[in-house]
Amino acid sequence: MVMLGKLNEIDINAVASYVKSRQNKDGSFGGDEYNEVDTRFSFCALATLHLIGRLEDTVDVEAAVDFVLQCYNFDGGFGTRPGSESHAGQVYCCLGSLAIADCLGMIDKERTARWLAERQCPSGGLNGKLFLFCSQ
């Protein structure tokens, strides 16, 4: 709707209210009524609120950033939740979340860039995580 210039056709307050209802006390976001926690949901929540212009007045952005930073691993990647292994998909979501919150300066960008560069396989393809091999 943003790309079409038709935000006026959705109930922005209802969208903001729903996204707010998905935030947990630790700053994470649950994806559905079962409350599965994953950094993908953090990114979706922050991106949605940013796109509709309701980021700062709807959720606890500081807590959301703190949760994402807890998912930052020693190798420079990010996991789905604190303590989980690094995966390229989560790196995308977490970097997106931090960028939306203007907090990219809170991580070691060189370490993350190195981790991402290591995802390239000899065949030229990319893998999503350590020890996942590319097809020849």
From TrEMBL:
Its cofactor is Zn(2+). Keywords: Metal-binding, Prenyltransferase, Repeat, Transferase, Zinc. Coiled coil: none annotated. Pfam families: Prenyltrans. GO terms for molecular function: metal ion binding; Rab geranylgeranyltransferase activity. Gene3D superfamilies: 1.50.10.20. Residues 3-129 form the Prenyltransferase alpha-alpha toroid domain. InterPro entries: PGGT1B-like (IPR045089), Prenyltrans (IPR001330), Terpenoid_cyclase/PrenylTrfase (IPR008930). SUPFAM superfamilies: Terpenoid cyclases/Protein prenyltransferases (SSF48239). One of its GO terms (cellular component) is Rab-protein geranylgeranyltransferase complex. Belongs to the protein prenyltransferase subunit beta family. PANTHER family: GERANYLGERANYL TRANSFERASE TYPE BETA SUBUNIT, GERANYLGERANYL TRANSFERASE TYPE-2 SUBUNIT BETA. This is Geranylgeranyl transferase type II subunit beta. It comes from Gongylonema pulchrum.
